[in-house]
């Protein structure tokens, strides 16, 4: 090699070392250990001086980044300066490095725990062994170690550089912790902190007039905002305000209604809690159902409204169990809480007997279920007895719920029975005399996002039971009982307890916080960003981070679609029912069309949903129509966030109203739809009675037997049958259809085994005679 060639190679090597690494390569294990001890001392001093005890991150969430290795500028400089490396010797040397405890300790100080150290080493080893040409500085160090001129520990700076390249969060952990510090959420709202707000808590049970008094102050104010948990409640206040000659706008996730023909904002607005504007000043703000601040999914919206609304007066309505917590929360903002207590306006009592049979239903009864399948079953049985019933459950459109409620409340309508889920707990004014709990077990989502069956809480039981005998209804006193006798004692036990006091409020990462995370971790997916955020987040003892599983579900669904971060975040906050495949498919198509920068027009949506849609012929059709209604809701929700890409709001709203009418017709004929879904469906009462008759039971014993999903058959007088079959049905592990199938198989098995039994008996008799 010529002298000029050597000079050029050495100059390129010097530039390469200066530009590619800030690590100073040192030889020998002693110096590394000295640095380790010194950094440990500094670290200890920092911890003692700052008093910080931040929790270690969940490193299982750290996803290694793929390195781009095709842009090395030095080519084979290292090999030209030294010699090609022996791969087998390299492998031995790298494995020795991996086993060095001192190296693991040094790596741990840089945030590489055992999991990350292992992942980083695997990546580093693959990089060294598979790269055709390594950076010159690394090549020279490896060659020196192979030749005995260096120590294995000299690899460490290059290993650490590689680790920080594939785990970029290691270099910015302090910044990430600061971004995810949620310990003082009151400071997120400087406009609210700049004024002295007066907080009035209207505390009382259901039907105590607490919200009425808050609304009266809202109507008397020059400007105001009402924040409710449901669209139905926002609609109710919107209509009440305008009927009282107080101009009021309506703002929900899917709807904006301005009373001014020219679109100017009115002084008052009724909105769903997530849609409240924390930057607009008001004289009065009303936050309804404040106890939902502890809700695992939506609690963040109540926290945001309570801490952030810029109003001279904040009127909070909710359960007395929230008073002490709201006082404590307002103490952190320096605001006092004035409490107004209310008593229930009309009494309700728990009856001493259960209904036990649908034959004992009376006008004004409402049967509460926690399953849509139970609603289908019960409505079928009720109408089989010649009674009309209204049906209300959560996935019905608001218009259909109001239509069913109007039908049930109308004194001239023959419909006097209501079958509903706990969707009646708030948002609907119903004339109910007696609440009947069909079950006391409800599916819930726990803190880990897992679904589990739980007995309803005292708060939930009171919220539902309180719908009986509401003030201003035709019934001046309410009654509460259960369908099954042995549930009655459990219900009384639940209602005898006081409501658990609220202890924490929900929080949720904002779009701005996620954007700052993404700045530091540009290659991470949105789902991974949120996971790391929650893992690193620090919250005060008064707060918790809300469940983000739905957000992550949507983020993973559209991860492959090219969207900017803000748009992706907005799409993932869309309120959709992920249990509906058609809704999820539509969400995916909306995101894909949006990413192509192609507007989602009315004609495009009509082609997608197959409009016009026919009236439902069975329950499956009805469920599909409900899903289509949710898809139109999704379009309207997105249209207010991306107006140019979802331009045909008025046309979509028009066909949604038509669809609502079709669904209302289907729900009015729900019994016919159930019958069309399965012509063989019979009353479970009759089915179970017949099966018992076939096995030899008398009709007197089975005449009062009653069976529904989730409960077991009842014996005479409503006594609980303790058989295995009963327990399986009661726990929801066996349905009436499966029970019939098992009975048929048992009968066939018994008939086949009968001849064998007779032959066995004959043989045994013959043997005895011989003896």
TrEMBL record:
Skewed-composition ranges (Polar residues): 680-707, 744-761
A GO MF term: ATP binding
GO process terms (BP): mitochondrial RNA 3'-end processing
Keywords: ATP-binding, Helicase, Hydrolase, Mitochondrion, Mitochondrion nucleoid, Nucleotide-binding, Transit peptide
Chief localisation class: mitochondrion
Top EC class for this record: hydrolase
Gene3D superfamilies the UniProt entry points to: 1.10.1740.140, 1.20.272.40, 1.20.58.1080, P-loop containing nucleotide triphosphate hydrolases
UniProt-listed Enzyme Commission number(s): 3.6.4.13
Cofactors demanded by this protein: Mn(2+); Mg(2+)
Record's subcellular location: Mitochondrion matrix, Mitochondrion nucleoid
A cellular-component GO term for this protein: mitochondrial degradosome
Occurrences of domain Helicase C-terminal (ranges): 350-518
Region Disordered, annotated ranges: 680-726, 740-771
Catalytic activity: ATP + H2O = ADP + phosphate + H(+)
Top-level taxon of origin: Eukaryota
Family: Belongs to the helicase family.
Name assigned to this protein: ATP-dependent RNA helicase SUPV3L1, mitochondrial
